[in-house]
Write a structure and sequence with these properties.
Elements (H helix, E strand, L loop, with lengths): L15 E5 L8 E6 L2 E10 L4 E7 L3 H11 L5 H6 L1 E10 L4 H14 L12 E7 L5 E3 L3 H6 L2 E7 L5 E8 L4 H29 L1 H5 L7 E4 L4 H13 L3 E4 L16 H16 L3 E10 L19 H11 L9 E11 L8 E11 L15 E3 L4 E2 L5 H7 L1 H9 L3 H6 L1
Parallel strand pairs: 4-5, 10-11, 10-12
Antiparallel strand pairs: 1-2, 2-3, 3-5, 6-7, 6-8, 8-9, 12-13, 13-14, 14-15, 15-16
Helix pairs in contact: 1-3, 7-10, 10-11
Bound molecules: 2'-deoxyinosine 5'-triphosphate (Y43) and magnesium ion.
Length: about 425
């Protein structure tokens, strides 16, 4: 009986370690370590195109093609006609089993993308080989791969069906082939158990609650001022906030709606559909009574482009000569919370705060129209308030207060 390079039994697989959600900015990412073979995979859906795209570093074009073919039957063909599933694989260290573990790591990442894998039964890949003395080994190290006379990578499902397989090296006769298949399917059973133990411990409780990552809320905004306010509020609830500034590759969302709600839904729905995560969006603005409610939904574009100083200058100009008591205004925020693929079921809440437009700007906190928005109860402009103070009184804070008691139940529903 041959001695393995790391003294394992011939039918023994190496320990598996998985770091789920390995990349901060990619929810569906894993660092997959089999022994010291390390592979990182990230996966995401994008709307720009359709189909399945697998890219990899450290893998040959043939291996990428094999992975593509092995993965394709596992993903909804219909979803792939509408969106593109992108899988990026990076081999960080190869000590054998690279192709099998690239497949496994990809399945791991896809498990983190809701509604992506068709089958609940997680398939798994394993490498097996025949040595010079005809011994068959499972999960070969690189040193073993180098001296193996034949090698095979096989995908098996939990129902013990063989999916894709590759064979290389010297031809094997049928009894050896059967032995290889048996070895591989035992290896798959072991690997699946390792995989599931890790997944169940680290990920499942969170996903079972219907919340892909309760630790983080994605907010579909590119406005850092809004982001700071959301962060401060959600931090109290133990939640981290990610915004579109964390996902620079996402497309621009056109705010073509005619209401705050329509625009908030547009932003939340489209980003949720791409990230396959629950997403919160805010559409907000300033309504000035003397201007018949303008700029309203056009607040960001009041002076043409999205420019706070330009908007404030235009507002002051349009209110030239309007006396203090007629400069009343309302700040409004509508929040839409979207679940992936359920665009008509958004949770929508709103908040308002009444105030007055000042004649000259005051304060330099906050963003947007804050220096011109005077809050009578506090005798201060919004920009004179600290972040914490603004989060007590603002339209956004009030909308969040309306969201707070309901969103967890809604999300879990
Ligand atoms: O608390 C606020 N303090 C001052 N100004 C504010 C506030 N809340 C909204 N506003 C103004 C800024 C912007 O001119 C418009 C919102 O436009 P809106 O499209 O919702 O936001 P945005 O384009 O800045 O960021 P994004 O769409 O990426 O969330 O109203
Ligand atoms: Mg906007």
């Amino acid at each position: 009986m041959m001695v393995r390079t790391d003294n394992r039994a011939v039918n023994d697989v190496r320990p598996l370690q998985v770091q789920w959600r390995y990349l901060t900015q990619q929810p569906a990412s894993v660092l997959w370590q089999r022994g010291i073979t390390k592979i990182m995979v990230a996966a995401y859906w994008q709307t720009k195109a359709a189909g399945l795209v697998v890219t990899g570093t450290g893998l040959t074009a043939g291996q990428i093609d094999w992975l593509q073919a092995a993965l394709l039957p596992l993903v909804s063909a219909e979803a792939l006609t509408q969106q593109q599933l992108v899988v990026t694989i990076t081999t960080l260290e190869n000590d054998g089993g690279q192709l099998a573990e690239a497949f496994n790591a990809t399945i791991g990442a896809l498990q983190l993308l809701p509604d992506t894998l068709l089958d609940q039964q997680v398939p798994c890949a394993v490498s097996v080989g025949v040595m010079a003395d005809q011994t068959t080994l499972v999960d070969l190290t690189l040193a073993e791969e180098e001296i193996a006379i034949s090698q095979m990578t096989m995908v098996a499902t939990a129902q013990e069906q063989v999916g894709a397989l590759t064979l290389s090296g010297q031809p094997v006769d049928s009894s050896l082939f059967n032995e290889l298949i048996l070895r591989a399917s035992q290896g798959c059973t072991r690997t699946t158990a390792q995989f599931q133990a890790s997944f169940q411990q680290a990920v499942q409780p969170v996903m079972a609650a219907g919340i892909p990552d309760v630790g983080t809320i994605v907010i579909a905004t590119k406005n850092p001022g809004k982001a700071r306010e959301f962060e401060a509020v959600f931090a109290k609830a133990g939640l981290k906030v990610k915004t579109l500034l964390d996902y620079p590759e996402l497309p621009e969302i056109d705010e073509t709606g005619q209401t705050f709600e329509a625009n908030a839904r547009l932003k939340a729905d489209q980003i949720a559909a791409i990230l396959k995560l629950p997403v919160l969006a805010d559409d907000s603005g300033l309504m000035v009574d003397a201007l018949d409610g303008r700029p309203g939904i056009y607040s960001a574009r009041f002076a043409g482009d999205h420019n706070d100083a330009g908007n404030n200058a235009k507002l002051l100009f349009e209110l030239t000569g309007v006396p203090t008591e007629k400069r009343t205004a309302t700040f409004h925020s509508t929040l839409a919370f979207a679940k992936p693929d359920r665009p008509n079921e958004d949770l929508v809440v709103e908040g308002n705060v009444a105030g007055r437009i000042l004649g000259i700007p005051r304060g330099d906190n906050g963003f947007g129209y804050d220096p011109l928005f005077y809050v009578p109860e506090l005798d201060a402009s919004m920009a004179e308030l600290s972040l914490a103070q603004k989060n007590q009184v603002s339209h956004r804070a009030r909308a969040i207060a309306n969201l707070e008691p309901v969103w967890r139940d809604w999300l879990a529903d």
